[in-house]
Amino acid sequence: MTGHYGTVSGGFGNTAGTYGSVAGGYNNTANNAGSVPGGHNNNALGTGSLAAGVGANATLANAFLWSDGTTATSSVSQAFEVYASGGVNFRTAGKLDVRVPTGNSGTLHVGADAVGPDPKLVQFGDGDYVHIGENGLDDRMELKASTFFFTHDATESGRVGIGTNTPLAMLHIADAGSLTEPQLQLNETASGGNYARVRMQQVGNAYWDIAVGGGAANVMNFYNSANGNVMSLSQSGDLTVKTITILGGADLAEPFEMSAEEIPAGTVVVIDESKPGHLKVSESGYDTRVAGVVSGANGINPGVRMKQKDVLDNGQNVALSGRVYVRAEAAHGAIRPGDLLTTSSLPGRAMKVTDRVRSQGAILGKAMTALPSGEGMVLVLGSLQ
C-alpha cells in the first residue's frame, strides 16, 4: 500500500506514506520521507528517518535505528542507534576515527596506534589525550591530566560510583572490604607530625577535619578550624573530649549477673551474699545490701553503661544513679515527690522511708513522682546511701 509519492518495492504487508520508501520485507511502514530497507515490523515515521532490522521504530526526525528483534524506539533526533544484544564488532587493521567537522577534539582511536611500549586500547583527544586501559603486563587503567574532575549540568545528579552503578551520593564506594582491604584508604606519606585527613565544611562555617597522625602519638583528632581539637582518640582507646551530651538514656548503669532468671525492669535488687558478684530480688524492708534498680522500665534506658570486656560484661543493666523508674508500693505510706525510698518487704519493690534510723545505708534514691496508694511505677532519682 502506498500513499502520496510513497514507494513499496516488494514484500507484503508493507505501507509507504508521503514520500516514504519500503524496499521489501513484510509488515513495514515508512512515512514522512522515512525509509525501511527490509526486515519486518519496522516503522520509519520520523521525517527523514530510517528503520532497519526487526522491531525498529524510528519515530524522531533524522533518526537511524537498527534493532536485532527487540522492540526499540528512537530516543533522540538526529542520532544513529543500534540495538544489538549479541554485541557490536568493528574489525580493521588500522584505527577508527570519530571526529567533529572542525578542530581536533572528540577523536576516538581504537587499536595499536598509541604512545608508549604497550598499545593503548582507547584514546580520546589530540596530542594531550586521555587513554583508558592498555594491553600490557601491568594491566592498569591510567587517566592523565593536570587536573582531573567530574562535572555535570543542572539536569544531572553528577554522582560517581565505584563498585556500584547506582550511586546514592556524590561519591559512593561499594565493596565487601575486609580487615586488611578497606573501601577507602588515605595515607600520609610525609614523615613527622603530619596527618592523613578528611575535611568537611558547610559554606560560611568553620571546617572540620577528621585527622589521623601527629607523629609517634598517632591519634585520631576531630579538629574544628574555629575551636581546634575538640576530641581525640588514642591508639589504646582513650577518648578525650570537652563535654558529652547523652540523648539515649537517663541513668548510669552496670551489668550484673543475677541469681534468678531474667528480672523485670524496675525491680529493686540487692547483693546476693551466697553468690559473690551476683544480685537478687530484694525481699525485706530497709535492706542495706540494696544495689540499685534494674534499668529499662517505662522506656527509660541507660544513658551510660560501664563494663569491662570479657571480665565484667554479662548480666542485666542495673541503674546505680540518675533517673530510673522503680516498682513501688504505697502500703507503708503514700509516696510524694521528694520522699526517700528504700527496699520493701514486698519482693522487688521500693517504699517510702518512715524510719530514718533503719534507713541508714538502705536508701536507693529520692522519689520524683507520686504514688498515693497501691502499687505502680515511680520515677526515682537514684543515689545509693
What this model shows, in words?
The structure is a single chain. With 385 residues, the protein is mainly beta. Among the domains are: 77 residues, no CATH class; 47 residues; 133 residues, Beta Barrel (Virus Head Decoration Protein, Chain: A). It has no helices and 29 strands. A 6-stranded parallel sheet has the order 2-4-6-7-8-9, with no helix packed on it. A 5-stranded antiparallel sheet has the order 15-16-17-18-19, with no helix packed on it. 28% of the residues are buried.
CATH superfamily of the domain at 251-383: Head decoration protein D
How many strands, which pairing sense, and closed or not: the largest β-sheet?
6 strands, parallel
What is the distance, rounded to the nearest whole angstrom, between the alpha carbons of the first and last residues? 103 Å
Question: Structural class, from helix and strand content?
Answer: mainly beta
Mean pLDDT level = 86
Uncertain runs are: 110-114
Q: Can you tell me the CATH architecture of the domain at 251-383? A: Beta Barrel
Strand line-up across the major sheet? 2-4-6-7-8-9
- Percent strand: 35-45%
- CATH class placement of the domain at 251-383: Mainly Beta
H and E order: EEEEEEEEEEEEEEEEEEEEEEEEEEEEE
* Tally of contiguous helical segments: 0
Number of strands: 29
The fold-level CATH name of the domain at 251-383 is Virus Head Decoration Protein, Chain: A
Identify the overall geometry: elongated
